[in-house]
Amino acid sequence: MNRRKAGAKAEEVAMSFLEQAGYSILKRNFTFGRIGEIDIICNHDGILVFIEVKARMNLEFGPPEASITTKKIQSIKRTAEGYLYINKISDMPCRFDVIAIEYQQDIPIIKHLINAL
Known about the structure:
Blueprint: H1 3-20, E1 24-32, E2 36-44, E3 47-56, H2 70-86, E4 94-104, E5 107-113
Parallel strand pairs: 3-4
Antiparallel strand pairs: 1-2, 2-3, 4-5
């Protein structure tokens, strides 16, 4: 499976997990110019949640969440500012979560890291 398909599959798994947990999905793969992309944007109990999804087929290079660099965090935050600006949102609490997925024999093991970035 190529990286793009694997990423899309991981995002589908994450969205299903979030919906079962009571999150309302607002947007998927939001881009703000060349600044960056946010995998999933959702609402949970009145909080706007920006979610980065990371997945690994094995832990040879560490857990999925370990691959989020300082540069990626800055990109996500600037992209979130763009989302708020475009949608004229100024008075809603926000947070940044990570959904880390480890596949063990094609079975996704999901970790939801709340307020992770």
